Amino acid sequence: MSYNTFGHMFRVTTWGESHGPAIGCVIDGCPPGIPLTEADIQPFLDKRRPGQSRFTTQRQEEDRVRILSGVFPNEAGVQVTTGTPIALEIQNTDQRSKDYSDIKDKFRPGHADFTYIEKYGIRDYRGGGRSSARETAMRVAAGAVARKVVPGIVIRGALVQVGAEQIDRARWDWAEVDRNPFFAPDAGIVERWTAYLDGVRQAGSSCGAVVEVVAEGAPAGLGAPLYGKLDQDIAAAFMSINAVKGVEIGEGFASAALSGEDNADEMRIGPDGAPVFLSNHAGGILGGISTGQPIVARFAVKPTSSILTPRRTIDAQGHETEILTKGRHDPCVGIRAVPVGEAMMAIVLADHWLRHRAQTGDRRSETA
Predict the structure, then answer these.
(1) From CA 18, how far away is CA 131, in angstroms rounded?
(2) How far, CA to CA in Å, does 359 sit from each of 31, 78, 238, 305, 353?
(3) N or C: which end of the chain has fewer CB within 10 A?
(4) Average pLDDT in the 37-54 region?
(5) CA–CA dist 147, 143 (Å, integer)
């Protein structure tokens, strides 16, 4: 199987399956001399780790990361990147493959079972194998490294919609995101989401969600006007996340309802002589190139396909049958998609920052 690598200059290749002995990744293109230890990566993995609330899968994985290569102590004794490939590994410790033995010959509706077998003629039915969201743990690990590449950048994500229930944007508080199990920036929505998801979980069903990711501190000039658009690559990165079915940048689809006057981000000269935008409908990207404003993107996550309600399907022998999926599954995969979205944004920005520096030598990318 090819297509396991993302990025150009900052390249991430992941490997492993949901129920295999381990998962891992190799990061190539990271500049040398960046301080990096496992302690720099682990907090982001802890944020994504399963089993932390009743609203996520109860699979108990410690998700302890090991750095296998690409770092070495400098003269001051600080462990730093060497400029060589960085290999990371996480052991799988709580697989329950028997949960899937009853469905090994059946195609789960909404899953990649049918398309996978049509393409490859073989599939690992245990938890989805390579198609499992378990792989995203390595994206989060790689994203932790990527955050250290671009100086001065802050990347934060939040859940802004669960099912049909949206946050009140007037109550947005980034500090609230780390105080609730939903990564919600609106304290007022937590009680409603709790009641709603309890009902979804008890019914053995699932629901979708919308995640918003904001990157602040990215310099102007990242991206290219045609086939290397920054928003193009962000969209590709988000669409590569399991269960994502839609992406928007800035106002996104809502911009279709705006007038040209309302949508335009007007400009003035600030007190320091630098340009100032009066709004950010474009989400920090114009013509595929970053403006220096916050980069704002959202993605929609479909309901978890693994549910306890019987669904009609077919099996590998061509018989019509029914299926219900046992095991431990997220009633709303959008919750744990928040740190994954942050990681993919970080990987794209690290890649574009290195590409920009290589092409232009622009001093702004060195001092941003």
Answers:
(1) 8
(2) 16, 31, 25, 43, 10
(3) N
(4) 86
(5) 6
Nearest to 291 by CA among 326, 266, 319, 257: 266
Q: Is 108 left (phi over 0), alpha (psi -120 to 50) or beta?
A: beta
Mean pLDDT of all residues in 29-52: 92
Query: Tokens at residue 118, please?
Result: 């049509």
Report d(CA 330, CA 58) in Å as an integer.
8
User: d(Cα 284, Cα 213) in Å, to the nearest integer?
Assistant: 12
Give residue 73's pLDDT: 97
**8 A C-beta contact, residue 198 and residue 207:** no
Q: How far apart are CA 164 and CA 32, in angstroms?
A: 46
